[in-house]
Amino acid sequence: MPLNKEGIAKRIAQDLRDGWYVNLGIGIPTLVANYVPEGIGVEFQSENGILGMGPFPFEGDEDPDLINAGKQTVTLLPGASLFDSAMSFAMIRGQHVQLTVLGAMEVSDSGDIANWKIPGAMVKGMGGAMDLVASAKNITVAMMHTSKKGESKLLPKCTLPLTGVNCVNRVVSNLAVMDITPDGFRLVERAPGVSVKEIEDSTAGRLVVDGSVPEMAL
Amino acid sequence: MPLNKEGIAKRIAQDLRDGWYVNLGIGIPTLVANYVPEGIGVEFQSENGILGMGPFPFEGDEDPDLINAGKQTVTLLPGASLFDSAMSFAMIRGQHVQLTVLGAMEVSDSGDIANWKIPGAMVKGMGGAMDLVASAKNITVAMMHTSKKGESKLLPKCTLPLTGVNCVNRVVSNLAVMDITPDGFRLVERAPGVSVKEIEDSTAGRLVVDGSVPEMAL
Amino acid sequence: MDKVVANVKQAIEGIESGMTLMIGGFGVCGLPENAIAALAETDVVDVTCISNNAGVADFGLGVLLKDHRVKKMIASYVGENDEFERQMLSGELEVDLIPQGTLAERCRAAGAGIPAFYTPAGYGTEVAEGKEVRVFNGKPHILEHAFHADFALVKAWRGDRAGNLIFKGTARNFNPMMAMAGKITVAEVEELVENTELDPNQIHTPGIFVQRIFQGDTYIKPIEQRTVRARS
Amino acid sequence: MDKVVANVKQAIEGIESGMTLMIGGFGVCGLPENAIAALAETDVVDVTCISNNAGVADFGLGVLLKDHRVKKMIASYVGENDEFERQMLSGELEVDLIPQGTLAERCRAAGAGIPAFYTPAGYGTEVAEGKEVRVFNGKPHILEHAFHADFALVKAWRGDRAGNLIFKGTARNFNPMMAMAGKITVAEVEELVENTELDPNQIHTPGIFVQRIFQGDTYIKPIEQRTVRARS
What we know:
Strand order of the largest sheet of chain A: 4-3-2-1-5-10-12-13-14-15
Number of strands of chain A: 15
Largest sheet of chain C: 8 strands, mixed
Oligomer: heterotetramer
CATH topology of chain C: Glutaconate Coenzyme A-transferase
Number of strands of chain C: 11
Distance between the termini of chain A: 13 Å
């Protein structure tokens, strides 16, 4: 059965390593914070100026001066720090953040990503996404494998304006975990009960299947 | 009579304007702080990270963590701020400092300055001087008109390695106040009792004398 | 040093049609509310606004956009304001969308006397169109230039007469860099104090970057996304 | 996050001959005293040191220079150390003197992922030799590149287990930028506290830039120029 959003977040959380600083984008990526494995200490960076971001505040404790990059009210954990936007992107461009998780409209099999604009229809802006994908060493995309119309979002080439080129390392979708390789998407894991065939059918870009592909252990 | 060091500092202090931020170099420039005219509020910037630098501390109050760019113990005045070296030079390069006063070994009649190196004999380094002279809109050099050997330090062309080109606006020496113009040093004021002839004899670079030149009023 | 002006009206004196304005804040967090509201009472039009976001429909930059005072908007993310999106898609409003880190760094660069710098952000995208590309350490970068502004409007938590500012929480965001980049920087603060009251070691923006300071009358500080968890 | 190491020996573990080291401080103010002293006890030689000054004869970088551990020195001002000047003029020591603001900015650039930037400092001087010159707004600038280091040794006043640092007075100077530029940044602090004790709004260097932290055993903090005025 394909994963829901929480399942995708849970699978990505398994990739976290102790001591990492992690930037989570808006949407599914935000949920990753809820599934940090036991014994793994990570600090979440919010590009509007937080290291050590904590959960949402208790009702009544909301502070308009303490929000995350998605403009949601948040809290700070012990050891947190606050800083300005130049410092925040210094951390990001300077590769001090070990993992970036963000959503995408399209990903190409060479690691290009598009997530900020649909010409003539939608323009929200790239926010910090272009800085993040151009800089981070380790970029995971969290996304649905196909659009609402059933079209693959994993393509040979992006059709939408790009956010970054040749930068995505891993895609975790509702169907699979895939790493970007010179040969295209390499299938790493299947969602529980999802067949290789099903993934192949939903992937328009090159998909490399090496031997038997394990199911995710969630 | 030629000015002494205090006299030079006192004359430069007359050029201060209310509301200015001022960077004073090591040596004679440091003394300018002692002669700020009544009613003129200025803040002194020290490039190692102070705005609002005050006088030396009272004996016993010295703090090793609070020094000026000359490594002397200093104090802070109300409204002071402390910052790092990148921020300090952001202020300097960004032209937020209204006046820079520094010493020189040589100044040319086109406004070049040399003050950091004597090849083969002395190399102290440029410290912040190159940033200051390349950036500041308003640079006054405080210096003796001639060397200990009696040679002019106001030259057609510097002989020592340069600190900056075409940057000095004004020179205040023990003999005169001179502004740099396209035609060379323009004589603005004479030290009390010093003749134009005496200044001409001590100046190797082009010197422009326009009509009668007033004496400084100290 | 005393940079205090009597009120918001004096603070924004000199802002004229056609000028370039920087406006601090991230979303509606850390916005110079009072200065924006006062600007909306003037007859200033055709301004170029540099601000990370475009406000929401009825708050922040939204009120300037609604009145068509903004000719051009330079921002990184505008997803919260439908009217903005409408004006942009219809072509009424000129828009330059640029990466958030590049926006922050271009403001800082202006304030720091760095006319241009190289960044990897935007390489290979439409952001890079017409820009110089250069490879450093095997990685392509694009050349970005400093952003200057005629006026920068910023908002801090506390400030003193000398213009020193301390921000609070994530309301800091773009305010410090924009303060550096304004030809005239107007700072509004929730609390204006005497020059002896702030710890010099804790100043976020040294007063040298601020030309005018005043205490805002009121601060609404709306919350865009009120997210909470239940008390257990 | 817990980046505390047990002692200075563990803190400098991995520093090897031939490496590039950044060392914070201005004069002997804000120097990582304990790390330098421990380094002087190792057999590390041939290092390239990036530090604003060269210490004095018997303190700070002076002790490393005296033992000829330094192959190359990158600094802005070295006037306080005669032994340094002697080694430099005799050719025993390779020296790169660069403008102080450029030094600070090159460290920050490395930490901030900016590979290169333009500055007016040094144009027309020997500092500009071999460097690209470009005119912006009618003014010539030179291209300067980021400085990276294998280790950065910095010193703060207070720090917590997560590596957050607060500096004191002018002991801040180059420490924050060098902390950003080190592949491994070792911070020593006068007082190490728990992660709940520092105000997140007052952190000068966020812990993300610090890989190891320890409390120094003692701090001598000499004064180079003790200047005072008489009590009236």
